[in-house]
Amino acid sequence: MQIINRAAIAVIRIYQIALSPFFGSQCKFEPSCSQYACDCFKAHGSAKSAGLIVWRLLRCNPWSHGGYDPAINPRKIKE
Predict the structure, then answer these.
(1) Which of 31, 57, 71, 77 could form a disulfide with 39 if both were Cys (CB 3.0 to 4.6 A apart)?
(2) Which of 62, 65, 66, 72 shows the shortest CA–CA distance to 38?
(3) How many whole angstroms separate alpha carbon 38 and alpha carbon 5?
(4) pLDDT of 3-43, one tens digit each?
């Protein structure tokens, strides 16, 4: 895993531990947007992750229905 990915995951984890509890559960998606970002950085490169995260945040709005939206498509995982 690249240093950039590790640093990004560390920043997100700090947010999840320090700030997220004060906001409560606001995300309409499962997993939450911050967990989705961590999953993206673990599974994809930095550039692709950035694009996926921005697209997810644009969809996370009051008019969205939300729902289950994993960062990794379980059907594409090879066993």
Answers:
(1) 71
(2) 72
(3) 9
(4) 999 999 999 999 999 998 888 778 889 999 999 999 999 99
